[in-house]
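Hey, I'm writing a tutorial for new members on how sequence and structure tokens pair up, and I'd like a real worked example in the thread rather than a made-up one. If someone can provide the structure for the chain below, I'll link this post from the tutorial.
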Amino acid sequence: MSSDVIIRADCLGKKYVIGHESGRERDTIRDVISRIARHFARTTVDMLRGQPMLAGDTIEEFWALKDVNFEIERGEVVGIIGRNGAGKSTLLKILSRITEPTEGCVTIKGRVASLLEVGTGFHGELTGRENIYLNGAILGMRRAEIRRKFDEIVAFAEIEKFLDTPVKRYSSGMYVRLAFAVAAHLEPEILLVDEVLAVGDADFQRKSLGKMSDVAKGGRTVLFVSHNLGAIRRLCSRAFLLENGKLAFGGSVDEALTAYERLYKSLARSIASASFTGPLAGQIQFDQVICRQDGVVVSELNPQRDSEIELHYFAFRSFPTFDVQLALFRDGLHVTSCFDTLDEPPIRSGHFISRFKIPGNIFRPGIYTLGIGARTSNAWVWGSDVAILDCSERLAEGPAHRYSGIVGIPYMAQRIERNIVAKSES
């Protein structure tokens, strides 16, 4: 490990063992007590038999990371991108020593500060003031060093009025502002930041990105996980693309984002490999996304033409209320959502198609990612980053400056010439 390499991962892997117990419904207190008793008896029998579980249960091994190798030099700002479930947060948790790898090792030189989820490292019963000193002590800072940075942290977090309030009473936005301010200002050699910054408002996000840039310019190392590809492009000097727990690409930001978009293109029609979550995940199955223009299935959209997006899905049972949602994202920003009904009518079991018609000149050239889902009155299913819309700049007609921005909006405009003649004074 050279003197400039501050983080090194060798054959890094993290495995989780997932147990599934069949036949479980909603538990009553009697069910819980009965299950505890069965678990105790089952554990004893399993030890005698040498079996991990009894019949009726299954074990699934899930590799959140597998054979990941990389080196990061001092002062680099590295973006980590990938679909949901690709292993990004697991990697940061290993680098933060929150969890241990199953195989391989990580070598880190220097003090690490991490902001992985709201409230990580905070004690809810302590005040904001007390948590600043607590986090500084965890980072190995002397009290005098913390005191020197204290006013700057409070000013950045904008929580002066609530400084002596227990943080359990903070809103999620206040929580993350203070957590980021502490992590960024107490001079760690390595700063790890997950998507948690999305909790803050737009002004705080801009301020945080500026602070991370200042941290990097000071010679410290930043690892930044985000779906905001625009922020990755502006802030980072390199990027890693993770897919299914493996390092699919590591290199320049532009090349990584190109690889990311290429990965989406390969999934543009079939969404069988997408990750769906929610209570309805086993009851609604999305099969396909199809894009059409002028009645023809296309892989690239002309942003000036009307577009039609079809979602194909199967309902395994009927529902008294039901609607399907299509969400559009651009550079990690939620642009808009569309719904296939207004009054959420009932649905029977069977195969369905929800069709969304979008007029021309709404999309701007670039890559849009799609999230799709469905909901009833009290349950839902959702999949993020399941497919892309590639709006081709080469297919657009007219000067490029007329297609700036994230989306276009329908509007009317007119130019009025006003000939004003000054009256002469008598």
